[in-house]
Design brief:
Elements: H1 33-46, H2 55-66, H3 68-74, H4 81-92, H5 100-126, H6 130-134, H7 151-183, H8 185-205, H9 210-238, H10 244-268, H11 273-278, H12 281-290, H13 298-303, H14 307-318, H15 321-341, H16 362-371, H17 374-383, H18 385-403, H19 406-418, H20 427-440
Helix pairs in contact: 1-2, 2-3, 2-15, 5-9, 5-10, 5-12, 5-19, 7-8, 7-9, 8-9, 8-12, 9-10, 10-20, 14-15, 17-18, 19-20
């Protein structure tokens, strides 16, 4: 089906239900070109952008954001060599040719994903020895029906392993939203998640009861859940559109690498379950040191009406004032539209029925952002048709991954391999390491 023109677009109020086009529409296309200057003039004046952002650059950026092809044709004789080169670079860019700022943020996110995998895999090898130290009656090869083991201790062993993932899904993942949207932003949320991981990992090394280990694993899970929610969002908000999908794969790649490294640690120190289980403090400490070297998400800064800061960040990310102005205007227009679409009353959205994008004055914008509380955003996962479909699809994919059984190997590999016949001493650790490497590759 062809993309609708600006004159035949359906009202914005239907965008929450209509997903058949499989596109994310550019809201600036709804503004007639002759009205764009006035629209941007109001934006420039009301947001106090005169100090840091040139008005003409902002208008040109808005025209570029509205229709790149038309802008290039109209500005053919006015584009500088630097601007032309920047626009051309975007069409053929690679990760390695991107700005230094994007590379720094990608490094931070890669370390965060390695922390995730390392935290998950750190207990795998330790499962062979910590039960004997803390549960007394349970050894790796003793089960509820075998001599030396008890049903109660097997349940405690299983619960101690599982509690991290329960905490990640039931607490950590839901903690991400208030952390990022209300309190500390994207970088701050990553720091808090890393602090949970670092503190819990150190605590695991000094536990002397299964209850203490259980509590540390619970805190570790909170950090894992928060981190897994915020890092992909952070990456997506700073990445150029052309590379966004490729950059987001770094999360899963880094997680797999972290699992492999945790297997290598088990081979290096096979006799110390305390170091094995707490070794994830190493990348977590690195994450805490690195996280504030990178810039904050420009989308989060714009949402908090810190426009000049957002422009500075976008200038570092895009390395060109015109491209920075383009992204600033586009993100702002998207947030204006999203805020209006999610307003509470039908009277608030009546102006959207004519298929034009809204312009919210600063006070109204602040009020409506405040009304879009956490509970309301959770509810919208199920009440908005297109979001509900996406939520259901994601839920089914994740359930299928869990039910495939691959995570049993990822998190209990050494214990499973230890049950095998003719298993040489230390063989299960090598098998776990091999699984981690294969998973990474």
């Amino acid at each position: 089906m062809p993309r609708p023109s600006s004159t035949t677009q359906f009202p914005f109020t239907r965008m929450l239900e209509n997903g058949r086009l499989a596109i994310i529409e550019n809201p600036l296309r709804r503004i007639p070109e002759e009205e764009l200057n006035g629209y941007i003039k109001s934006f420039h004046k009301e947001k106090g952008l005169g100090i840091g952002i040139d008005f003409n650059t902002l208008v040109r950026g808005a025209r570029l954001a509205r229709d790149e092809e038309a802008f290039v044709q109209e500005e053919a004789g006015n584009l500088t060599e630097v601007e032309s080169a920047a626009l051309e670079k975007e069409k053929r860019t690679t990760i390695w040719s991107e700005s230094r700022e994007i590379k720094i943020i990608l490094l931070i996110c890669c370390v965060g994903s390695i922390v995730q995998g390392w935290s998950q895999g750190a207990i795998v090898a330790a499962n062979q020895t910590w039960p004997k130290a803390l549960l007394k009656t349970l050894t790796p090869t003793s089960g509820p029906t075998q001599p030396g083991g008890s049903s109660r201790d097997m349940w405690l062993f299983s619960a101690t392993n599982a509690i991290a993932y329960f905490a990640a899904s039931s607490v950590g993942a839901f903690l991400c939203d208030p952390l990022t949207e209300i309190f500390v932003g994207r970088r701050g949320a990553i720091f808090v998640a890393g602090l949970f991981t670092f503190t819990a990992s150190i605590g695991e090394a000094f536990t002397h009861s299964w209850q203490a280990l259980f509590a540390c694993r619970f805190l570790l899970g909170i950090g894992m859940g928060a981190k897994s929610s915020v890092i992909p969002v952070y990456e997506s908000e700073v990445s150029p559109a052309r590379l966004r999908g490729r950059i987001l794969t770094s999360w899963q790649t880094g997680t797999a690498l972290g699992i492999a490294i945790s297997g290598a640690v088990a081979l290096i120190v096979p006799g110390s379950w305390r170091f094995q289980i707490s070794s994830s403090f190493i990348p977590a400490f690195a994450l805490l040191l690195l996280v504030f070297i990178g810039s904050e998400s420009p989308r989060w800064l714009i949402k908090k009406q810190r426009y000049n800061e957002a422009y500075i960040v976008l200038s570092r990310l895009r390395e060109n004032p015109l491209l920075a102005a383009r992204d600033l205007v586009l993100i702002w227009a998207q947030l204006q539209l999203e805020t209006t679409l999610f307003m509470r009353t039908t009277n608030d959205i009546k102006d959207l029925e004519d298929a034009r994008i809204p312009y919210l004055d600063p006070e109204l914008y602040r009020r409506q952002i405040g009304l879009l509380g956490y509970a309301r955003r959770i509810t919208q996962l199920f009440t908005i048709p297109r979001v509900r479909r996406a939520t259901l699809a994601s839920f089914l994919v994740m359930m299928a991954q869990q039910m495939s059984g691959v995570n049993v190997f990822a998190f209990l590999a050494s214990t499973l391999f230890e049950y095998g016949k003719h298993n040489p001493e230390g063989g299960s650790l090598w098998l776990f390491f091999g699984f981690g490497v294969a998973n990474f590759l």
